[in-house]
Amino acid sequence: MTTYTRERIKELLKLYFIMGSNNSSIAPDYVLEEALKGGISVFQFREKGKGALEGKAKFQLAKRMQKLCNHYNVPFIVNDDIELAIALDADGVHIGQEDEKAIKVREWIGNKVLGVSAHSIQEIKLAMEAGADYIGIGPIYPTSTKKDAKSVQGISLIEKVKEQNLTIPIVGIGGITIDNAFPIIKAGADGVAIISEISMAENPYEQTKRLKKVVLGQE
Ligand SMILES: Cc1ncsc1CCOP(=O)(O)O
Ligand SMILES: C=C1C=NC(C(F)(F)F)=NC1=N
User: Fold this and answer.
1) What range defines the domain where residue 64 resides?
2) 199: which of 24, 36, 60, 62 fits an S-S bond (Cβ 3.0–4.6 Å)?
3) Catalytic site residue from 14, 46, 106, 112
4) What CATH number is given to the structural domain containing 29?
5) In this structure, is the dihedral angle defined by the CA atoms of residues 30, 214, 170 and 154, taken in order, positive or negative?
6) What's the chain's Rg over C-alpha atoms?
């Protein structure tokens, strides 16, 4: 398990921003800093898909984004790339079902935060046994950001997790906007994970502030 308590993980998941350089038409460092000022609670560096950076350029962008997160005391999570996470001494990693097995990753990363994507109760239980600190469930709504996203599942799996009294922290992801975010929290998720609603926003700072109010039930 991680050095973070389960309660702390649940707090961190509240407004989970995820992006890479190909999720925005403007400078990713600028978008991230606006989102940090707007109140995101955790950031995931996800450099993936068409036009994604690789090698030194990817490492340097990750380093700049990690520095921004450290400045705002927001944990910095790396998607998929375990070596990069270890090289940067990131706060955690997020892996999908098709990535390295959670049990192996847990051994590699020690007590860093380990997040796992899951699409069924079975996958959630396996991830819990492997020492995952939180689960990403989605796509909740249709999304065009992840080309190979699984079928849209709504909030049904989040509700099932609650019905079965599974206590692992949960974050919903996929097609989440200002208008559809709160039902995910109401269904029992600890937070929402967002890419384009913030990364493509006209004003990422204002958009983040509004999303924060929505997930806190203040709007
Ligand atoms: C990474 C990922 N996993 C499931 S959907 C998705 C993309 C979420 O992006 P957006 O918030 O723009 O729909
Ligand atoms: C595919 C993903 C699914 N869920 C998450 C998170 F929101 F962090 F749990 N991140 C991903 N990259």
Assistant:
1) 6-215
2) 24
3) 46
4) 3.20.20.70
5) negative
6) 16
Query: How many Å apart are CA 185 and CA 217, to the nearest integer?
Result: 9
**Cα distance between residue 28 and residue 206, in whole Å:** 16
Instruction: Tell me if the pTM is above 0.95.
Output: yes
In the block, which residue shows the tokens 């959670």?
102
56 belongs to the catalytic site: no
Whether residue 16 is contained in a domain is answered as yes
Distance (Å, rounded) from C-alpha 136 to C-alpha 193?
8
pLDDT in tens, 28-84: 999 999 999 999 999 999 999 999 999 999 999 999 999 999 999 999 999 999 999
Residue 175 within any structural domain of the chain: yes
Domain assignment present for residue 53? The answer is yes
**Is 209 an annotated catalytic residue?**
no
**Number of the ligand closest to the Cα of 118:** 2
- Mutating to test ligand 2, I would choose from 94, 124, 197, 198 the residue with most ligand atoms within 8 A of its C-beta, which is 94
In residues, how long is the chain?
Answer: 219
Alpha helices in the chain (DSSP H): 6-12, 28-38, 55-71, 82-88, 102-109, 121-129, 156-163, 182-186, 196-199, 204-215
By CB atoms closer than 10 A (0-12, 13-18, 19+), residue 42 is buried
Total count of domains within the chain:
1
Looking at this predicted complex, what is its ipTM?
0.99
In a domain, 1, yes or no: no
